[in-house]
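Hey, I'm writing a tutorial for new members on how sequence and structure tokens pair up, and I'd like a real worked example in the thread rather than a made-up one. If someone can provide the structure for the chain below, I'll link this post from the tutorial.
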Amino acid sequence: MTNCVIVEETLGEATMRASRLLRILLILQNRGRQTSQQLATELEVAPRTILRDVDAMSEAGLPIVVFQGQGGGIELGFNYRTRLTGLTTQEGEAMALQLAAPNSAIDALGLRGIYETARAKFLESLPDRTRTVFEATDRRFALPDPPNADSDLYVMALAQAVRDKQIVTLQARSANPRKVHPLALTLADDGWRLTDALNPDTPIHQVDWGDLNISSRRFS
């Protein structure tokens, strides 16, 4: 049991570091030279952590240049840049409003935290002008926060079965269980609906799912 915990913590740390390295890359790309203290403040870590990350990025082949002394800092060399197609002001406003009001399905699928992280990465990857449009839109058009919704364990489990193409038995404890090949989940006004690849024209409403048994067997 102890070994499992250690493995999970190590994987979690690796994931956090990978996310941080990506953010450092995007910040340097869009803002230019930064001090280790500026990056540390932005990413809420110690400056020495930033320096270790920069060393790792250099070892990975990224053209990181470190300037010492007054006015020094860290920047990307050789005009290294990942190009993104620019958005017009109106396109930027439309995207900003969409990102500010995520679909309630995000909560039901247990993806709220991942959504917030992805949103931050996306904003950081934008050119300065486009990011300014996003920030201005957030100030000008205040949208109500979506209501907090609890994660739905049934929906989350079926969503994973959809991703992995796992065979599922609905109403697993009933006298008439039904095996399905979960193809898609759709959020409608009356709740979620499951599309069964064996009978795709007749979606199965959430109230009819009953107990679930998710098999390790997969369908093609």
